[in-house]
Amino acid sequence: LNRANQTYVFSVLLSDEIVPEAIFYGTIIPLLSYYCVKKFIIDPYAEREKEKKNQKARQENATRLSKLKKEAEAAIRLMTETYRRINEIESEKSGLVIVKALYGKSEIVANYVNCDEIEPSAEVINVSIPIQCLVKDSMLTLTEASKAFLPGFYDPCLGEKKE
């Protein structure tokens, strides 16, 4: 420990000699104890607290989320004719046809890739129509910005930390 011009040295003596038991009890046991406490007590507690925080955020954002969902559904209804036209044009020229596009948490999206129906309570939305409407000349151009601001999209995980 250094403080100004003074140096303090503290020597911790575990044993007078190099004894394997002293090394074991002085290093391995504390490390294993720390690992076990962290793995079985601290990490589960932190995970529960994180889940409580996410649940609270979901409750606080429920009305805002339902409003965003209604706006997105209205935008999709307005896009249906454009979707049909673009889909028909792309199909005729063997261009880019979006079969299925999902938006939400990556872990949850993976569960719905092969499903036809998505639960209304799931944190995943089907964005096939809005994505197909973004196709022009068999090219889909997306920016690096959040997709939640695109027409027909909304953030189904509102208030949660994103990857």
TrEMBL record:
Keyword Chaperone belongs to the record: yes
Cross-referenced InterPro entries: DnaJ-like_C11_C (IPR024586), Mito_inner_membrane_organizer (IPR052243)
GO cellular component, one term: mitochondrion
Keyword flag Cell cycle: no
UniProt keyword list: Chaperone
GO BP: any one term: cristae formation
Span of domain DnaJ-like protein C11 C-terminal: 57-162
Entry superkingdom: Eukaryota
Membrane-spanning segments: none
PANTHER family: DNAJ HOMOLOG SUBFAMILY C MEMBER 11
UniProt-recorded name of the protein: DnaJ subfamily C member 11-like protein
